[in-house]
Amino acid sequence: MPRPGRNTYSDQKPPYSYISLTAMAIQSCPEKMLPLSEIYKFIMDRFPYYRENTQRWQNSLRHNLSFNDCFIKIPRRPDQPGKGSFWALHPSCGDMFENGSFLRRRKRFKVLMAAERLAQSKQSEAAHYLQQQAKLRLSALAATGTHLPQMSGYNLGVSQSSTFKHPFAIENIIAREYKVPGSLAFSTMQSMSAGYPLHNQLTSAWPHMYNTGVIDTVAPISMAGGDYSAYGMPLKSLCHGGQTLPAIPVPIKPTPTSMSGFSAMPPHIPAFLSNSPQSLSPTSPQTATSQSSPATPSESLTNSSSMQSVAVH
DNA sequence: ACGTGTTTACGTGCGC
DNA sequence: GCGCACGTAAACACGT
């Protein structure tokens, strides 16, 4: 686990929102996912300001985790006993702080945003996109099926082969504070968000998803019944209490409209395939994404979310 | 009992 | 002024 600088802000309140702080914590660990208690610990460890009035800010932080779509809750596996779930960053939240300000975001991250964009596009384009996604996903899944990293738990090592640094990576956030104290400039944010190593993040954040075979070359076919979300997870488990199932990233607040959006899916394309193929590609995002593809890897999950909401206005 | 997660409500500050 | 992001408080449900 990276050990960025400590005590950067003495006892002053850090110029970061709770969202930023939480994102830092999550990004600081190799698995890109942390239980709530570890997020607390991270913040208190690095920002002495938050060692006091814990009840207050921790309540606020929990509120942010639940309220903001940029955080996704990952249920524990049955063999991972403990309180609470893991929390991870939504892969598409990379441009939240595009203006470089960690005090105030340009716009609140909403899963539905991309859905609205797609809903505005022509239906034929959407269908074409779905077909392309399906092809890419199939090939990606076939490629990943046999050599996925064998990880059995949250604390296991994770391949960090990608040189990509998530915008929220502690290196990117705190390091800048070191270089330019007080400066909020974050000019490289956009370029970095364009190369999100989603595959790495998925394998690290949800290793058990791969280990349990939930994602393999067979799964897409077996999931064609429409009972699965765009994340390849049974819809029933999207509701609270799905913790007995393999931990798979799910939107925190799946709306009835997003669920019903599956009806807009072309019947010949399994719901699972509507997900981003690039997100599971073992190749680099750059190579996996063709120029004609409408989505960067960082956008792909958002677009997959949009698949759920094509019918939503 | 306590920690966790969700939701609602309200106030504040900022940008347009 | 308005809308939005953010912070805070509080109530409640649920799981360990």
UniProtKB/TrEMBL annotation:
Biased-composition ranges, Polar residues, are 302-313
Q: Where in the cell is it found?
A: Nucleus
**Which CDD domains does the protein's record reference?**
FH_FOXB2
Fork-head domain mapped to chain residues = 13-107
Q: Where is this region: Disordered?
A: 273-313
GO cellular component terms listed in the entry, alphabetical order = nucleus
The annotated regions of Low complexity compositional bias extend over 273-301
Q: Which Pfam families match?
A: Forkhead
* Name assigned to this protein: Forkhead box B1a
- The organism encoding this protein is Gadus morhua (Atlantic cod)
Name the encoding gene, please: FOXB1
